[in-house]
Design goal:
This protein is mostly helical. 77% of the residues lie in helices and 0% in strands. Helix 1 packs antiparallel against helix 7. The longest helix has 42 residues. The radius of gyration is 20 Å and the shape is globular.
Length: 235
């Protein structure tokens, strides 16, 4: 995808968006229906259902930043404009995912622990990730020429990769209020079958929504770049 013809890439993405739209509708209906009929947790009641938004958003905020950081490296090292456009397209979606994690986590924390926020390692490192996403978006819109903004934002994304393992392993490295891993851990998931299946359905649904959004931003950005190059050429 990083070396594909720009016009072919736009055509492929527009076709994918049609398929994604259908899948998103089907998965959204399925996911919401299953979540609605799930029994409430014995200790947390209905509030535990926030997990099916909070956890997928957390996974995606880390995954998207990882992809953004890798494509930023590819863009700088191999001078790939497509890679930098992909990183630019991911950034606002990743920011929304990280904000979603913080908001849903605060609500869940208040209902479970009686507090919206504590400065523990997981919450603080996640907040830092959200600020890095915000800074990345800010840099993307801080320069008149897109090459300068792409370069500055790529540097920040690469530096920000250092924070990913801190977010992931913070509950293992430090004593935190946040619970440990329930799915990806040694010994297997601690969630029972139906809850684990529902969680993965929710994740796939939110992933497809994110991809739909990213693809649309990517196509729009490529069209905008094409017009900018034509304007500069004519001048």
């Amino acid at each position: 995808m990083l070396v594909i013809n720009p016009n072919s890439l736009s055509t492929i993405l527009k076709s994918l968006n049609k398929l994604l739209s259908i899948l998103i509708v089907l998965l959204s209906i399925s996911s919401l229906t299953i979540i609605y009929f799930l029994e409430n947790d014995y200790y947390q009641g209905i509030s535990f259902k926030i997990m099916f938004i909070h956890v997928p958003a957390a996974w995606l905020s880390l995954l998207l930043f990882g992809v953004m950081g890798i494509t930023s490296i590819i863009g700088l090292v191999f001078k790939s404009p497509n890679a930098l456009i992909i990183a630019r397209s991911i950034s606002p979606v990743g920011l929304i995912m990280s904000i979603t994690v913080l908001i849903t986590g605060s609500i869940w924390g208040y209902l479970t622990w009686g507090t919206f926020w504590v400065w523990d390692a997981r919450l603080t490192s996640m907040l830092i990730l959200a600020f890095i996403y915000f800074g990345h978006n800010l840099l993307l819109n801080s320069f008149d020429h897109f090459q300068k903004s792409d370069f500055a934002a790529a540097i920040l994304a690469i530096i920000g990769l250092v924070n990913l393992p801190i977010v992931k392993f913070s509950v293992d490295w430090w004593t935190t209020l946040h619970q440990g891993a329930s799915v990806f851990k040694i010994g297997g998931p601690s969630l029972s079958g139906i809850y684990l299946i529902t969680l993965f359905i929710s994740f796939i649904c939110i992933l497809l929504i994110s991809l739909f959004w990213i693809f649309n931003i990517l196509v729009t950005t490529k069209d905008k770049r094409k017009l900018e190059r034509m304007r500069l050429f004519n001048e």
